[in-house]
Design a protein that fits this description.
heterodimer, A: ten-stranded mixed sheet, 11 helices, 34% helix, 19% strand, B: mainly beta, OB fold (Dihydrolipoamide Acetyltransferase, E2P), 8 strands, globular
Protein backbone atom coordinates (compact mmCIF):
# COMPACT_ATOMS: atom_id res chain seq x y z
CA UNK A 1 0.00 0.00 0.00
CA UNK A 2 1.30 3.44 -0.88
CA UNK A 3 1.15 6.68 1.06
CA UNK A 4 0.82 10.22 -0.21
CA UNK A 5 1.14 13.72 1.16
CA UNK A 6 -2.13 15.55 0.70
CA UNK A 7 -1.55 18.98 2.17
CA UNK A 8 0.95 21.06 4.09
CA UNK A 9 1.39 24.15 6.20
CA UNK A 10 4.35 26.03 7.68
CA UNK A 11 4.19 29.00 10.01
CA UNK A 12 6.57 31.96 9.88
CA UNK A 13 9.87 30.97 11.51
CA UNK A 14 10.97 33.48 14.15
CA UNK A 15 13.38 33.88 17.03
CA UNK A 16 10.90 33.79 19.88
CA UNK A 17 7.22 34.21 20.73
CA UNK A 18 4.96 33.77 23.76
CA UNK A 19 3.19 30.74 22.25
CA UNK A 20 3.67 27.33 23.85
CA UNK A 21 4.64 24.35 21.71
CA UNK A 22 1.05 22.93 21.62
CA UNK A 23 -0.27 26.38 20.66
CA UNK A 24 2.27 26.68 17.83
CA UNK A 25 1.31 23.23 16.58
CA UNK A 26 -2.46 23.84 16.78
CA UNK A 27 -2.19 27.05 14.73
CA UNK A 28 -0.31 25.15 12.03
CA UNK A 29 -2.69 22.15 12.04
CA UNK A 30 -5.80 24.34 11.84
CA UNK A 31 -4.32 25.94 8.70
CA UNK A 32 -3.37 22.48 7.39
CA UNK A 33 -6.91 21.15 7.80
CA UNK A 34 -8.21 24.20 5.97
CA UNK A 35 -6.22 23.08 2.92
CA UNK A 36 -7.70 19.56 2.57
CA UNK A 37 -10.88 17.72 1.67
CA UNK A 38 -10.13 15.12 4.34
CA UNK A 39 -12.42 15.62 7.31
CA UNK A 40 -11.01 16.14 10.79
CA UNK A 41 -12.95 13.05 11.98
CA UNK A 42 -10.96 10.89 9.54
CA UNK A 43 -7.63 11.69 11.18
CA UNK A 44 -6.48 8.49 12.88
CA UNK A 45 -2.89 9.35 13.69
CA UNK A 46 -0.87 12.29 14.99
CA UNK A 47 2.92 12.25 15.18
CA UNK A 48 4.66 15.16 16.88
CA UNK A 49 8.27 15.90 15.98
CA UNK A 50 10.11 17.84 18.67
CA UNK A 51 13.27 17.69 20.77
CA UNK A 52 11.64 19.53 23.67
CA UNK A 53 11.22 17.97 27.11
CA UNK A 54 7.49 18.76 27.11
CA UNK A 55 5.36 15.76 28.07
CA UNK A 56 2.44 14.14 26.24
CA UNK A 57 2.45 16.62 23.37
CA UNK A 58 0.50 14.41 20.93
CA UNK A 59 -2.42 13.97 23.28
CA UNK A 60 -2.39 17.61 24.42
CA UNK A 61 -2.55 18.76 20.80
CA UNK A 62 -5.24 16.15 20.02
CA UNK A 63 -7.40 17.38 22.92
CA UNK A 64 -6.94 21.03 21.97
CA UNK A 65 -8.08 20.26 18.40
CA UNK A 66 -10.82 17.73 19.24
CA UNK A 67 -9.01 14.82 17.56
CA UNK A 68 -9.29 11.21 18.76
CA UNK A 69 -6.61 9.36 16.79
CA UNK A 70 -5.72 5.68 17.08
CA UNK A 71 -2.13 6.63 17.70
CA UNK A 72 -0.61 9.76 19.16
CA UNK A 73 3.10 9.96 19.91
CA UNK A 74 6.24 12.10 19.81
CA UNK A 75 9.45 11.53 17.86
CA UNK A 76 12.84 12.89 18.89
CA UNK A 77 15.73 12.16 16.56
CA UNK A 78 17.51 15.51 16.97
CA UNK A 79 17.74 17.46 13.68
CA UNK A 80 16.46 14.39 11.82
CA UNK A 81 13.21 14.32 13.83
CA UNK A 82 10.88 15.74 11.17
CA UNK A 83 11.54 13.12 8.51
CA UNK A 84 11.65 10.41 11.19
CA UNK A 85 8.05 11.38 12.01
CA UNK A 86 7.19 11.19 8.30
CA UNK A 87 8.84 7.76 8.13
CA UNK A 88 6.64 6.56 11.02
CA UNK A 89 3.49 8.01 9.43
CA UNK A 90 4.38 6.33 6.12
CA UNK A 91 4.84 3.00 7.96
CA UNK A 92 1.48 3.33 9.72
CA UNK A 93 -0.31 4.05 6.46
CA UNK A 94 1.47 1.58 4.21
CA UNK A 95 0.84 -1.20 6.77
CA UNK A 96 -2.88 -0.41 6.77
CA UNK A 97 -3.00 0.62 10.44
CA UNK A 98 -3.91 4.25 9.69
CA UNK A 99 -5.49 6.15 6.81
CA UNK A 100 -4.84 9.80 7.63
CA UNK A 101 -1.93 10.89 9.80
CA UNK A 102 -1.00 14.43 10.76
CA UNK A 103 2.74 15.00 11.17
CA UNK A 104 3.51 18.20 13.04
CA UNK A 105 6.94 19.58 13.93
CA UNK A 106 7.46 22.20 16.62
CA UNK A 107 10.45 23.72 18.36
CA UNK A 108 11.47 26.71 20.46
CA UNK A 109 14.81 28.41 19.90
CA UNK A 110 16.26 27.21 23.22
CA UNK A 111 15.54 23.55 22.49
CA UNK A 112 17.61 20.97 24.40
CA UNK A 113 18.14 19.39 20.98
CA UNK A 114 20.67 22.08 20.07
CA UNK A 115 23.45 20.16 21.82
CA UNK A 116 24.00 16.41 22.40
CA UNK A 117 25.21 16.35 26.00
CA UNK A 118 25.72 12.54 25.98
CA UNK A 119 28.55 12.69 23.45
CA UNK A 120 31.67 12.82 25.62
CA UNK A 121 33.87 12.33 22.55
CA UNK A 122 33.49 16.03 21.71
CA UNK A 123 35.17 17.18 24.93
CA UNK A 124 34.92 20.95 25.38
CA UNK A 125 34.37 21.39 21.61
CA UNK A 126 30.75 20.29 21.87
CA UNK A 127 28.88 22.66 19.56
CA UNK A 128 27.70 21.30 16.19
CA UNK A 129 29.90 23.86 14.41
CA UNK A 130 32.99 22.12 15.82
CA UNK A 131 32.32 18.77 14.12
CA UNK A 132 31.11 20.52 10.96
CA UNK A 133 34.38 22.46 10.74
CA UNK A 134 36.37 19.20 10.89
CA UNK A 135 34.38 17.85 7.93
CA UNK A 136 35.06 21.11 6.07
CA UNK A 137 38.77 20.98 6.82
CA UNK A 138 38.91 17.39 5.60
CA UNK A 139 37.11 18.30 2.36
CA UNK A 140 39.40 21.30 1.78
CA UNK A 141 42.49 19.18 2.32
CA UNK A 142 41.43 16.18 0.27
CA UNK A 143 39.50 17.81 -2.59
CA UNK A 144 40.71 21.44 -2.76
CA UNK A 145 37.30 22.81 -1.81
CA UNK A 146 37.64 26.39 -0.55
CA UNK A 147 35.87 29.17 1.32
CA UNK A 148 34.52 30.67 -1.91
CA UNK A 149 32.78 27.37 -2.70
CA UNK A 150 31.09 27.45 0.70
CA UNK A 151 30.12 31.09 0.20
CA UNK A 152 28.35 30.19 -3.08
CA UNK A 153 26.12 27.78 -1.14
CA UNK A 154 25.32 30.39 1.49
CA UNK A 155 24.66 33.07 -1.13
CA UNK A 156 22.28 30.82 -3.11
CA UNK A 157 20.31 29.72 -0.07
CA UNK A 158 20.03 33.18 1.46
CA UNK A 159 18.82 34.53 -1.92
CA UNK A 160 16.21 31.76 -2.05
CA UNK A 161 15.11 32.68 1.48
CA UNK A 162 14.43 36.21 0.22
CA UNK A 163 11.55 34.64 -1.79
CA UNK A 164 10.16 32.73 1.20
CA UNK A 165 8.05 34.84 3.60
CA UNK A 166 8.23 32.06 6.23
CA UNK A 167 12.04 32.19 6.33
CA UNK A 168 13.80 33.75 9.31
CA UNK A 169 16.11 35.63 6.91
CA UNK A 170 13.37 36.62 4.43
CA UNK A 171 14.25 40.30 4.74
CA UNK A 172 18.01 39.91 5.15
CA UNK A 173 20.12 40.40 2.03
CA UNK A 174 23.63 38.99 1.95
CA UNK A 175 25.93 39.08 -1.05
CA UNK A 176 29.00 36.93 -1.75
CA UNK A 177 31.37 39.50 -0.20
CA UNK A 178 29.24 39.84 2.96
CA UNK A 179 29.40 36.09 3.42
CA UNK A 180 33.15 35.80 2.86
CA UNK A 181 33.78 38.68 5.26
CA UNK A 182 31.34 37.55 7.93
CA UNK A 183 32.58 36.77 11.43
CA UNK A 184 34.73 33.67 11.79
CA UNK A 185 33.26 31.00 14.06
CA UNK A 186 35.36 27.86 13.66
CA UNK A 187 37.77 27.67 10.72
CA UNK A 188 36.87 27.58 7.89
CA UNK A 189 33.23 28.25 8.83
CA UNK A 190 31.94 31.79 9.28
CA UNK A 191 28.70 32.92 10.84
CA UNK A 192 26.96 32.94 7.42
CA UNK A 193 28.07 29.34 6.81
CA UNK A 194 25.98 28.30 9.82
CA UNK A 195 22.23 27.94 10.33
CA UNK A 196 20.48 29.74 13.17
CA UNK A 197 18.37 27.90 15.76
CA UNK A 198 14.86 29.40 15.87
CA UNK A 199 11.22 28.80 16.69
CA UNK A 200 8.79 27.32 14.19
CA UNK A 201 5.95 24.95 13.37
CA UNK A 202 5.36 22.93 10.23
CA UNK A 203 2.71 20.28 9.53
CA UNK A 204 1.61 17.94 6.78
CA UNK A 205 -1.18 15.43 6.22
CA UNK A 206 -0.34 11.96 4.96
CA UNK A 207 -3.05 9.73 3.54
CA UNK A 208 -3.66 6.22 2.21
CA UNK A 209 -4.10 5.28 -1.43
CA UNK A 210 -7.84 5.02 -0.82
CA UNK A 211 -8.21 8.50 0.65
CA UNK A 212 -5.93 9.88 -2.08
CA UNK A 213 -8.82 9.44 -4.54
CA UNK A 214 -10.39 12.48 -2.83
CA UNK A 215 -7.17 14.47 -2.78
CA UNK A 216 -6.76 17.26 -5.33
CA UNK A 217 -3.08 16.76 -5.88
CA UNK A 218 -1.48 13.95 -3.88
CA UNK A 219 2.29 13.70 -3.87
CA UNK A 220 3.45 10.12 -3.54
CA UNK A 221 6.26 8.76 -1.42
CA UNK A 222 8.17 6.61 -3.89
CA UNK A 223 11.06 5.81 -1.59
CA UNK A 224 11.91 6.53 2.04
CA UNK A 225 14.88 5.29 4.01
CA UNK A 226 16.83 6.14 7.11
CA UNK A 227 20.22 5.05 8.35
CA UNK A 228 21.38 5.37 11.96
CA UNK A 229 25.09 4.90 12.65
CA UNK A 230 25.21 5.65 16.37
CA UNK A 231 25.19 8.96 18.20
CA UNK A 232 28.73 10.09 18.92
CA UNK A 233 31.24 11.94 16.79
CA UNK A 234 33.50 8.92 17.35
CA UNK A 235 31.09 6.89 15.23
CA UNK A 236 31.30 9.03 12.12
CA UNK A 237 32.90 7.75 8.95
CA UNK A 238 36.51 6.73 9.29
CA UNK A 239 37.91 9.34 6.91
CA UNK A 240 35.54 12.32 7.44
CA UNK A 241 35.14 12.61 3.65
CA UNK A 242 31.53 11.38 3.63
CA UNK A 243 28.36 11.19 5.67
CA UNK A 244 27.89 7.42 5.62
CA UNK A 245 24.30 7.45 6.90
CA UNK A 246 23.33 9.66 3.93
CA UNK A 247 24.99 7.30 1.44
CA UNK A 248 23.19 4.26 2.89
CA UNK A 249 19.76 5.95 3.11
CA UNK A 250 20.02 7.41 -0.41
CA UNK A 251 20.95 4.07 -1.95
CA UNK A 252 17.97 2.36 -0.31
CA UNK A 253 15.48 5.14 -1.13
CA UNK A 254 16.47 5.20 -4.81
CA UNK A 255 16.22 1.39 -4.93
CA UNK A 256 12.67 1.54 -3.54
CA UNK A 257 11.72 4.29 -5.98
CA UNK A 258 13.38 2.50 -8.93
CA UNK A 259 14.98 5.84 -9.74
CA UNK A 260 18.46 7.34 -9.90
CA UNK A 261 19.82 10.71 -8.73
CA UNK A 262 19.66 12.01 -12.33
CA UNK A 263 15.85 11.55 -12.23
CA UNK A 264 15.45 14.18 -9.48
CA UNK A 265 14.36 17.69 -10.54
CA UNK A 266 14.37 19.44 -7.17
CA UNK A 267 15.90 18.71 -3.76
CA UNK A 268 15.90 20.00 -0.20
CA UNK A 269 19.28 19.19 1.33
CA UNK A 270 20.26 19.52 5.00
CA UNK A 271 22.53 22.59 4.93
CA UNK A 272 22.89 23.22 8.67
CA UNK A 273 26.40 24.22 7.60
CA UNK A 274 27.44 25.03 4.03
CA UNK A 275 29.86 22.10 3.87
CA UNK A 276 26.99 19.69 4.53
CA UNK A 277 25.27 20.69 1.28
CA UNK A 278 28.46 19.91 -0.66
CA UNK A 279 28.77 16.55 1.12
CA UNK A 280 25.09 15.83 0.39
CA UNK A 281 25.59 16.40 -3.38
CA UNK A 282 28.27 13.72 -3.31
CA UNK A 283 26.82 11.25 -0.82
CA UNK A 284 23.36 11.21 -2.41
CA UNK A 285 25.03 10.60 -5.77
CA UNK A 286 24.28 13.77 -7.71
CA UNK A 287 28.01 14.02 -8.46
CA UNK A 288 31.18 11.99 -7.79
CA UNK A 289 32.98 12.17 -4.44
CA UNK A 290 35.17 15.23 -4.18
CA UNK A 291 33.39 17.19 -6.92
CA UNK A 292 30.63 18.71 -4.79
CA UNK A 293 31.93 22.23 -5.27
CA UNK A 294 31.50 21.82 -9.05
CA UNK A 295 27.88 20.76 -8.67
CA UNK A 296 26.74 24.11 -7.32
CA UNK A 297 28.05 25.81 -10.47
CA UNK A 298 26.31 23.34 -12.82
CA UNK A 299 22.71 24.23 -11.87
CA UNK A 300 21.41 20.82 -12.98
CA UNK A 301 18.67 20.66 -10.38
CA UNK A 302 16.97 23.13 -8.05
CA UNK A 303 18.39 22.89 -4.53
CA UNK A 304 17.00 24.42 -1.34
CA UNK A 305 14.45 26.68 -3.00
CA UNK A 306 12.85 27.54 0.37
CA UNK A 307 16.23 28.90 1.51
CA UNK A 308 17.56 25.83 3.27
CA UNK A 309 18.33 25.77 6.96
CA UNK A 310 20.80 28.61 6.32
CA UNK A 311 18.09 30.98 5.10
CA UNK A 312 15.01 29.66 6.92
CA UNK A 313 16.53 29.09 10.34
CA UNK A 314 16.44 25.71 12.06
CA UNK A 315 13.55 24.94 14.42
CA UNK A 316 14.87 21.41 14.94
CA UNK A 317 11.65 19.37 15.07
CA UNK A 318 10.00 21.37 12.28
CA UNK A 319 12.86 21.45 9.78
CA UNK A 320 12.43 18.04 8.12
CA UNK A 321 8.71 18.66 7.74
CA UNK A 322 9.18 22.10 6.19
CA UNK A 323 11.81 20.66 3.82
CA UNK A 324 9.24 18.06 2.74
CA UNK A 325 6.49 20.68 2.44
CA UNK A 326 8.67 22.68 0.08
CA UNK A 327 9.04 19.73 -2.29
CA UNK A 328 5.32 18.92 -1.99
CA UNK A 329 4.30 22.50 -2.85
CA UNK A 330 6.78 22.67 -5.73
CA UNK A 331 5.45 19.39 -7.21
CA UNK A 332 1.85 20.50 -6.65
CA UNK A 333 2.75 23.81 -8.38
CA UNK A 334 1.06 25.65 -5.54
CA UNK A 335 3.72 28.27 -4.93
CA UNK A 336 2.13 31.67 -5.16
CA UNK A 337 5.32 33.63 -5.46
CA UNK A 338 8.61 33.80 -7.32
CA UNK A 339 9.74 30.53 -5.78
CA UNK A 340 7.76 28.18 -8.06
CA UNK A 341 10.02 26.13 -10.36
CA UNK A 342 8.67 24.76 -13.64
CA UNK A 343 8.52 21.18 -14.91
CA UNK A 344 9.37 19.45 -11.64
CA UNK A 345 8.02 15.90 -11.42
CA UNK A 346 10.23 14.31 -8.82
CA UNK A 347 11.82 15.68 -5.68
CA UNK A 348 14.10 14.56 -2.87
CA UNK A 349 14.39 15.45 0.80
CA UNK A 350 17.60 14.95 2.80
CA UNK A 351 17.47 15.48 6.56
CA UNK A 352 20.21 14.52 9.04
CA UNK A 353 21.38 14.76 12.65
CA UNK A 354 24.34 14.83 15.02
CA UNK A 355 27.52 14.79 12.91
CA UNK A 356 25.73 12.75 10.29
CA UNK A 357 25.12 9.80 12.58
CA UNK A 358 21.52 9.69 11.30
CA UNK A 359 20.11 10.60 7.86
CA UNK A 360 16.77 10.24 6.09
CA UNK A 361 16.13 10.38 2.36
CA UNK A 362 12.62 10.73 0.89
CA UNK A 363 11.91 10.49 -2.86
CA UNK A 364 8.63 12.14 -3.86
CA UNK A 365 6.72 12.07 -7.15
CA UNK A 366 3.63 13.76 -8.59
CA UNK B 1 27.59 6.84 41.13
CA UNK B 2 27.04 6.15 37.43
CA UNK B 3 29.74 5.23 34.92
CA UNK B 4 30.29 8.78 33.70
CA UNK B 5 30.62 10.04 37.27
CA UNK B 6 33.16 7.31 38.05
CA UNK B 7 35.23 8.33 35.02
CA UNK B 8 35.06 12.01 35.92
CA UNK B 9 36.18 11.18 39.47
CA UNK B 10 39.20 9.27 38.13
CA UNK B 11 40.03 12.21 35.84
CA UNK B 12 40.08 14.43 38.93
CA UNK B 13 42.75 12.04 40.23
CA UNK B 14 44.69 12.54 36.99
CA UNK B 15 43.83 9.15 35.47
CA UNK B 16 41.97 8.80 32.17
CA UNK B 17 40.12 5.51 31.92
CA UNK B 18 37.69 4.36 29.27
CA UNK B 19 35.65 1.17 29.07
CA UNK B 20 37.33 -2.01 27.81
CA UNK B 21 36.14 -5.51 26.95
CA UNK B 22 38.61 -8.12 28.23
CA UNK B 23 37.17 -10.73 25.84
CA UNK B 24 37.16 -8.71 22.59
CA UNK B 25 40.17 -6.60 23.65
CA UNK B 26 38.33 -3.49 22.47
CA UNK B 27 38.11 -0.05 24.05
CA UNK B 28 34.83 1.89 23.85
CA UNK B 29 34.01 5.58 24.17
CA UNK B 30 31.64 7.12 25.20
CA UNK B 31 31.68 4.64 28.09
CA UNK B 32 29.24 1.73 28.37
CA UNK B 33 28.75 -1.07 30.87
CA UNK B 34 28.67 -3.79 28.24
CA UNK B 35 30.72 -4.55 25.15
CA UNK B 36 28.70 -3.78 22.03
CA UNK B 37 30.05 -6.91 20.29
CA UNK B 38 29.77 -9.70 22.90
CA UNK B 39 27.69 -7.93 25.63
CA UNK B 40 30.21 -9.03 28.29
CA UNK B 41 30.74 -6.60 31.16
CA UNK B 42 33.32 -3.95 30.40
CA UNK B 43 36.03 -2.88 32.82
CA UNK B 44 37.63 0.54 33.18
CA UNK B 45 41.12 0.72 31.74
CA UNK B 46 43.63 3.43 30.93
CA UNK B 47 44.16 3.87 27.20
CA UNK B 48 47.61 3.63 25.71
CA UNK B 49 48.73 7.25 25.65
CA UNK B 50 49.83 7.23 22.05
CA UNK B 51 47.53 8.25 19.23
CA UNK B 52 47.33 9.98 15.88
CA UNK B 53 45.84 13.33 14.92
CA UNK B 54 43.20 12.84 12.21
CA UNK B 55 42.00 16.41 11.59
CA UNK B 56 42.33 19.85 13.12
CA UNK B 57 40.83 23.33 13.09
CA UNK B 58 40.74 26.59 15.04
CA UNK B 59 37.83 27.77 17.15
CA UNK B 60 37.20 31.54 17.29
CA UNK B 61 34.39 31.15 19.81
CA UNK B 62 34.95 33.50 22.71
CA UNK B 63 36.37 31.99 25.92
CA UNK B 64 37.45 28.96 23.89
CA UNK B 65 39.74 30.41 21.19
CA UNK B 66 42.13 27.60 20.44
CA UNK B 67 43.40 25.03 17.99
CA UNK B 68 41.68 21.69 18.41
CA UNK B 69 41.66 18.37 16.66
CA UNK B 70 40.28 14.88 16.61
CA UNK B 71 42.71 12.23 17.82
CA UNK B 72 42.48 8.45 17.63
CA UNK B 73 43.82 6.35 20.54
CA UNK B 74 43.38 2.57 20.58
CA UNK B 75 40.74 2.95 17.83
CA UNK B 76 38.64 5.37 19.86
CA UNK B 77 38.28 9.00 18.91
CA UNK B 78 38.08 12.14 20.97
CA UNK B 79 38.42 15.86 20.40
CA UNK B 80 41.01 17.86 22.29
CA UNK B 81 43.00 21.08 22.33
CA UNK B 82 46.28 21.12 20.36
CA UNK B 83 48.97 23.63 19.60
CA UNK B 84 49.36 24.74 16.02
CA UNK B 85 52.57 22.80 15.49
CA UNK B 86 50.78 19.47 15.61
CA UNK B 87 50.03 18.33 12.07
CA UNK B 88 47.58 15.82 10.71
CA UNK B 89 48.93 12.23 10.94
CA UNK B 90 51.39 13.27 13.68
CA UNK B 91 51.74 10.89 16.60
CA UNK B 92 50.28 12.52 19.71
CA UNK B 93 49.80 11.93 23.42
CA UNK B 94 47.41 13.32 26.01
CA UNK B 95 49.41 15.99 27.79
CA UNK B 96 46.73 17.41 30.05
CA UNK B 97 43.42 16.22 31.42
CA UNK B 98 40.78 18.14 33.39
CA UNK B 99 37.06 18.65 33.91
CA UNK B 100 35.46 21.89 32.76
CA UNK B 101 31.70 22.29 33.35
CA UNK B 102 31.27 18.48 33.58
CA UNK B 103 33.01 18.11 30.20
CA UNK B 104 36.33 16.39 29.66
CA UNK B 105 39.04 18.78 28.52
CA UNK B 106 41.96 17.02 26.84
CA UNK B 107 45.14 18.54 25.47
CA UNK B 108 47.12 16.66 22.84
CA UNK B 109 50.83 17.23 22.22
CA UNK B 110 53.15 15.90 19.54
CA UNK B 111 55.05 12.80 20.59
Amino acid sequence: MKSAIDSSHTSVFQKISDYTLPELSCKSIINLLGNTKIDKKEIDGIIVSSCSNDQYLGNIISEMLGLNPKISTKIDNLCNSGTSAIFLAHSLISSGICNAVIVTGIEKQNSPGNKLIWDLTRGIYDLPVHWASLFAKSHFRNFNTNEEDLALISEKNHKNANKNPNALFYNKKYNFKDILESKKVVDPLKILDCCYPCEGASSLLMISQNLAKRSENPIWIKGISQSNQGASFANISSDMKSINSTKIAAKEAFLQAKLKPKDIDIAELHDAFTILEILAYEDIGFIDKGKGSEFIKQNNIHVNTRGGLLGCGHPIGATGIDQTNEIVLQLQEKMTNLRQKKNCNRGLVHNMAAAGTSSTIIVLEK
Amino acid sequence: MNLKEKILERINDGIFEVTFCTKCKEYSWPPRYNCKSCFNSNVLKEIENKGILLEKSFSHISNNESFFGVGEFNKIRMIGTINNEVEINDLIFINSLKIIDKRISLEFNKL
